[in-house]
Every structure is written in C-alpha cells, then in structure tokens.
Amino acid sequence: MRHTFFCIDGHTAGNPVRLVAGGAPLLRGASMIERRADFLARFDWIRTGLCFEPRGHDMMSGGFLYPPTRDDADCGILFIETSGCLPMCGHGTIGMATFALEHGLITPREPGTLRIEVPAGVIDIAYGEEGGRVRWVRIRNVPAYVAATGIAIDVPGFGPLSVDVSYGGNYYAIVEPQGAYTGLDDLGAARIVELSRTVRNLVRDAFEPVHPLDERICGVSHVLWADVPKSEGADGRNAVFYGERAIDRSPCGTGTSARLAHLVDQGKLQVGDRFVHESYIGSRFIGRVEESVDVGGVAGIIPSIEGSAIATGFNTVWIDREDRFWAGFSV
Ligand code: PYC
C-alpha cells in the first residue's frame, strides 16, 4: 500500500520546511493540541516517514494545514519534526504561511493578516506581499516566560554550567558563555551537537517544566547556546539544538521568543525593544518584545518574530509499505 503526500518544500532562513499540502490524515479533537495527541497516537508514522531518512534528514521540519476549530482563526497548523510534534514552531510557521499564501491554500479574511491555531495556542500573523511573493512574515507568538534560572549541571569532559530554562512555544535550556563555553565558533557544530544531548539530559534530570496554563506542554526539548553577534547589525547569535543531531539553520522562532523573555528577565531588554538574532549560519530573524503579560501567575512577555521563507519546489512523496524503511529510520 502506497500513501501519497503532496508537499511544498522550502526553507526559512536556511532551515527546512516541508508543507504537506495533500495527504493529511483526518484528526479527532476540539483544539489543535487535542488533534496533536490524536496524530501522535494514530499517525506518528507519517511524521517519521516524512522527516527521517530516507525521505528526510536530521533537520527536517514541516507540518499540515487544518481547518480551524475556532471561529476567529483562519487555519490550524500541526507541526512535524524529527523531534516530534512541537507545540509551536516559528521558522515552520513563517515557511508554511508563506507557501500556503503564495499557492492559494489559505485565503485570509483580512489581507495582510492571518490568525492561526497551533497546539500551543493562537498566533497572529502580519505579512507583506510584492510581485506575487510573500516577502516577510511577522508572528505575534504565544506568551513567553522564564521557567527556571541557575540550574547547576556538570557536563562530563566539559565542566560545570549554569543553565536557565525559558519557554517561547517550546522549553529551551539556555546556555550563555561561561566557564569552558567561550563561544560557538570555539566549539564547532559537531561538539555543539554532542554536548547538547548531554546538557539536555542533565537539565531534564534536574527540572521538568510544565506550562502553567496547559500541563500537556511540558519538558525541555531544545538547547539554545547563546553568543555575542558575529555580523554587523545583529544583537545576538545562537545555535539551537533539536532532535538528536540537528542545529537549527534559522535563528529559531520559538528559541528567539524564549531568549527575548530571558533577556527581559535579566533586565537587558524591555517592552518595545527589538533584537536581531543571528543563526549559526548567519541568517536572521527580528525579534521584538511586544508587551508584558501574566502567564498563569508568572511574569512573561508577548514576543514577535519576523523573517522570510522561500519555496524550493513541489515534492510528491510516497510512503510505500513495501519499502523496508517506510516509517523512516534514524541512526
Ligand atoms: O523556529 O521555532 C522554531 C524551531 C523549532 C525547532 C526548529 N525551529
């Protein structure tokens, strides 16, 4: 039996986005977080088949568009990635909104804006078009907040680190330069990946964040290594680790959101500030601290992230049950 998925492939700031425009399963659930649970219970083979080798790779990320479950939204998004079905994905939203608008898959009720339901909540999008292309997308994200500071870990072969945990749609362990961590270029990509797995495990052993408004959103999934900017006009740089081997090629939308909340918590940014975040490969998002909010009794912010995406082509992907690797593999 062969399942066919019509995809628009592309990237946001260098990180892959696979918008599955045809072949999405019908899901049960009264909200995107309920549909996410249903997808994970019954259809996770679609995620692994489309994201893992041989049809994907370590960084593969994307999602499906669904009709919204609420009257005030234009559509819903279910994210798929090598690491699972994220509550929210910034680079993925920028890419999927761009490709969907450019190919007429969503019709906004108000041109220039979209309201999208994601598992983590509801996000508002502003975008600019020119010459039939979407040139930029800005996401007013779900609230971000700092969940813990000063988690002490000792990384074998590296040394002690003090790590903070911040939420921007996913929970990030944030490592700032300190001790043996003297900057991204001193570590290099292979070492960042290797260390990140250990850092994530050690932080998970020490602290399990649970979202104050929705306990289904929990657990540290990503590690953000913060650094000073490398190029002119940027305010900060990062390498975001996800899955088992991925470094985000984009500055990571939810990572940037988590970092904005973190910098506000440290008194280094305030409402109204802009923060240009540079990725490991030098691509950029513009982050903004839009407003302060209460997140279930915890002080937080509404962050926004702005960036752009480009489609690289149509891709009809088969998951064929006669293929030994129909559900993908990861080594
Ligand atoms: O842009 O939010 C993001 C993201 C999450 C994982 C990879 N990118």
UniProtKB/TrEMBL annotation:
Coiled-coil residues: none
Annotated Gene3D superfamilies: Diaminopimelate Epimerase, Chain A, domain 1 (3.10.310.10)
Domain of life where this protein originates: Bacteria
Pfam families xrefs: Pro_racemase
Stated family: Belongs to the proline racemase family.
Protein's name in the database: Hydroxyproline-2-epimerase
Origin species: Sphingomonas panacis
